[in-house]
């Protein structure tokens, strides 16, 4: 079977991390897989083991998804977008896939709908949509997305577990139950050996959640006198992102590290956003966690996830308004050093996704 995965991450890295895991699962199952990625290249995310076509990259600023920007940060012009579409169509023509997986579309990426439509028109492949556990709620788009799914897609893969967090928590579709396939959460590789440490603060590898960084640095300074715990802040993929943060003797500030999961497993306490990959990583360790969901410009996805995860022992949710430096420092001291039960998430979503695609193609 030949599989094409079409994905464009516009802010964080989670979409590409998840899509790359699906690609590796497809290869492991003996299939030919091509990954078309349309976001900014991520140096900290190795893709050398995959067949990857990097499209002319797009990004957005301040969650303004209506203004797509090119790789230099300028508003993307029509010719630039046309070059992307041409590259996608050419790649599909050369590869001739059996199945085309559109990551997020049509539940999101509406600004890119023309290139997704061009991709679907360029191939006779089975089209399957792929979304994370909680697509950003858009009540005014539910009916439109449902109509597109019913007309043009064979199935909708939901990378979560219905018993844990059903799709209806964010997208209350009616009449699509026969199309929805829950895959479980997409996790890749084994959790590495723990690297012992203190309080670990991370905002992932993308551009979101930067307001947490100075707050956490101030929390580290506030806790320096009353706690022996060291603090470590991982600022993301930019090496200079922590230059302006408040410094203190108990604080290490550095860019995102490839051994992040080992640091997380061995940390006394984790402070982070609550993106999809954060939930997956927390499900694979016993580190107590404080989640500060990103809610800029009214975004709700991370808040929904954080509030759910906080119903489990050893995990707390603070909104951006609640998360003062003093409160972060106090809560970190309270949670630090305790172990918590593992989260009840099904983590074989990559392999299960490929098995579902195999069944869909066979029964087509």
Overview of this protein structure:
The protein is an alpha/beta fold and 364 residues long. The chain is built from 10 helices and 13 strands. The strands form 2 sheets. It has a 7-stranded parallel sheet with strand order 3-2-1-4-5-6-7, sandwiched between helices. A 6-stranded parallel sheet has the order 10-9-8-11-12-13, with helices on both faces. Strand 11 (269-272), helix 7 and strand 12 (289-291) form a beta-alpha-beta unit. The longest helix has 18 residues, at 78-95.
In short:
By secondary structure, this protein is an alpha/beta fold. 31% of the residues lie in helices and 16% in strands.
By DSSP, the count of extended strands is 13
Strand content: 15-25%
Instruction: Extract low-pLDDT stretches.
Output: none
- Count of helical regions: 10
Distance between the termini: 13 Å
Strand order of the largest sheet: 3-2-1-4-5-6-7
Helix content: 25-40%
| Rg calculated over all Cα atoms | 21 Å
| Quaternary structure of the protein | single chain
Which structural class do you get from the secondary structure elements? alpha/beta
Shape: globular
Q: How confident overall, as mean pLDDT?
A: 93
| Series of H and E elements | EHEEHEHEHEEEHEEHEHEHEHH
Main beta sheet strand tally, sense and closure: 7 strands, parallel
């Amino acid at each position: 079977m030949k599989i094409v995965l079409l994905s464009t991450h516009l802010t964080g890295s989670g979409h590409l991390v998840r899509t790359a895991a699906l690609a590796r699962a497809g290869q492991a199952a003996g299939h030919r897989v091509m990954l078309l990625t349309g976001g900014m290249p991520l140096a900290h995310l190795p893709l050398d083991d995959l067949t990857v076509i990097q499209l002319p990259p797009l990004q957005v600023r301040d969650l303004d998804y209506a203004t797509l920007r090119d790789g230099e940060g300028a508003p993307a012009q029509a010719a630039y977008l046309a070059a992307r579409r041409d590259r996608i169509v050419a790649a599909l023509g050369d590869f001739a896939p059996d199945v085309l997986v559109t990551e997020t579309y049509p539940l999101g990426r509406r600004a890119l709908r023309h290139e997704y439509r061009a991709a679907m028109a360029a191939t006779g492949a089975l089209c399957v949509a792929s979304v994370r556990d909680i697509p950003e709620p858009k009540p005014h788009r539910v009916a439109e997305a449902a109509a597109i799914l019913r007309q043009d897609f064979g199935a909708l893969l939901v990378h979560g577990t219905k018993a844990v967090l059903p799709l209806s928590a964010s997208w209350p579709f009616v009449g699509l139950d026969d199309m929805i396939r829950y895959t479980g959460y997409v996790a890749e590789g084994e959790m590495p050996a723990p690297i012992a440490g203190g309080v670990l603060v991370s905002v992932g590898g993308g551009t979101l959640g930067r307001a947490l960084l100075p707050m956490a640095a101030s929390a580290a300074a506030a806790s320096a006198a009353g706690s022996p715990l060291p603090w470590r802040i991982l600022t993301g993929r930019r090496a200079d992102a922590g230059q302006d943060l408040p410094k203190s003797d108990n604080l290490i500030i550095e860019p995102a590290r490839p051994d992040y999961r080992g640091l997380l497993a061995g940390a006394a306490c984790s402070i982070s956003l609550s993106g999809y990959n954060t939930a997956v990583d927390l499900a694979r360790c016993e580190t107590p966690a404080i989640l500060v969901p990103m809610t800029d410009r009214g975004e709700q996805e991370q808040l929904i996830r954080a509030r759910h995860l906080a119903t489990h022992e050893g995990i707390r949710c603070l909104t951006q308004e609640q998360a003062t430096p003093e409160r972060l420092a106090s809560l970190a001291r309270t949670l630090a050093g305790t172990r918590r039960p593992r989260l009840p998430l099904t983590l074989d979503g990559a392999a299960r996704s490929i098995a579902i695609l195999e069944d869909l193609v066979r029964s087509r």
